[in-house]
Write a structure and sequence with these properties.
single chain, 292 residues, mainly alpha, two-stranded antiparallel ribbon, 5 strands, 52% helix
Length: 292
Amino acid sequence: MHSDDVVWDTLGNRQFCSYKITTKTQNFCRNEYNLTGLCNRSSCPLANSQYATVREEKGRCYLYMKTIERAPFPRRLWERVLLSKNYEKALEEIDENLIYWPRFIRHKCKQRFTKITQYLIRIRKLTLKRQRKLVPLRRKIERREKRREEKALIAAQLDNAIEKELLERLKQDTYGDIYNFPIHAFDKALQQQDAESESESDAENEEEEEEDTDKREFVEADDSDLSDFEDMDKLETSSEGEQEEEEEVEQKASRSKSKGKTPLKGPARRKRPYIEIEYEEETEPTTKTKAA
């Protein structure tokens, strides 16, 4: 026969319980069906044959109930009831299922259900809210990579120094005509020399252009230049005299025409420019006839 008092006396007070945690101030219970989490007579799930609790599984709340009639069947010991997502309807369902149960158990079930709904709401808000992702720093890997980079830099500097030394020896012909030298390095050295020579030539051209722009020179005039200016003056004076003579001839011709003819009515006609026309006549030479 199952007796709750005997179970509590053996587990709670005298003998060992695997779910019990003792501290200086209070004792706690780790059983998943415990209603309050405290180790006492009213909230112990093992020492109470009529017991109820609320649990959360995958975001949904369930009401678990245990009765003395199902004690011989451990597989069907707990009855599970799915509660509604609506808070008010879920409280009504708890009251309906626990209508004849002790008031302490009914009140603690409602209190546990409210706490579970509150932390589910907080979980939903945090998932929707943007969060910072914490990335762990691997110190050993960072140190290893840093050492490798330093070694690679030292090796690269050494290779460059060896390459420069070999190129200098190649220029100085220290080894004669026989060489075992990589072609790509030789081509690279030639390209560098061409680039340096081009840059030097460009710099020299720029310096020369700057010097040409800054310098100013004054040159003495030659006799040939002066004679050219005098010839130009003579041509200008002769052209002016010819223009004056042409104007006088035009005026005389216009006066003679105006005397013989009456002036025309209407708009005045434009004066045509005076044109001189010269005719050349070819004369055939006379042939001497010989007497018969």
